[in-house]
Amino acid sequence: MRKFWLVFAVVVCIMTGMAISYLTVPKENGQLESFDAIIVIGCPTADDGTLSPMQKARVLEGVKEFSAGKAKHLIFSGGASNNHSIESQVMAQAAAEMGVPNEAVFLDQEANNTLGNIFFSHLIMTGKGWNSAEVISSQNHLPRLGVILALYNFSWQTHAAPWPPNINPLIKFLYYGREVAATTVVRWFGFRSNDLVPF
Question: What is the 3-state secondary structure (H, E, C) of 108-167?
Fold first, then answer.
């Protein structure tokens, strides 16, 4: 019985530490009202190559922020990470159908993970001389984004897209669980030498 309680205490401590690591990531490194660009983080398309519900939620939020004047440029980030459809192209097409002019849209078609999303979007920003960005993704994804964004020297702020309507609560729970684990790993152990990080 003593061994059980010892194991239980260790598990509780680890889980508490993971929760703290996830919940205490900064959401911004400055308090800006407007930005040079809005970065919309990609996620997999539907199997048939069309906009997935999660993508649609992120694009809608990006277009909403663009229309509200938060930035004059939209960067859609994402390559063909899970299938042959390039995420950024699918999202940009949806944004165009919502009325966003083509000249305001820039594509990162290389990224296949969150590190790549920021790395390649930052390359676009550097090439254009932009120094600030609002970064849009799903709520559960923002802490890990914050850890990655803190590696960069531009001004940033994360912004949550709403969950797709009627999302299964179990799926939502699993999404959060995955991000708690992934965020904890990078906060506790850092990044690998071959990761796309700015050093």
Answer: ECCCCCHHHHHHHHHHHHHHHCCCEEEEEEEHHHHHHHHHHHCCCCCEEEEEEECCCCCC
β-sheet bridge partners, residue 107: 76
Q: Which amino acid is at 65?
A: E
Is pLDDT of 179 > 70? yes
Please say whether the beta carbons of 25 and 187 come within 8 A. yes
| Of 28, 83, 36, 23, residue with least CA distance to 55 | 83
Q: Give burial (CB, 10 Å; 0-12/13-18/19+) of 67.
A: exposed
CA distance 142 to 150: 12
Nearest to 104 by CA among 133, 77, 84, 75: 75
pLDDT(61) > 70: yes
Task: Note the pTM of the prediction, 2 decimals.
Answer: 0.93
Question: Among 43, 28, 55, 26, which residue's Cα sits nearest to residue 132?
Answer: 28
Could you give all domains of the chain from N- to C-terminal order, each with its CATH number?
33-189 (3.40.50.620)
25-34 confidence digits (pLDDT tens): 999 998 899 9
131-171 pLDDT per residue, tens: 999 999 999 999 999 999 999 999 999 999 999 998 999 99
Extract the tokens encoding 134: 């609002």
**Contact assessment for residue 37 and residue 73, using Cβ atoms and an 8 Å cutoff:** yes
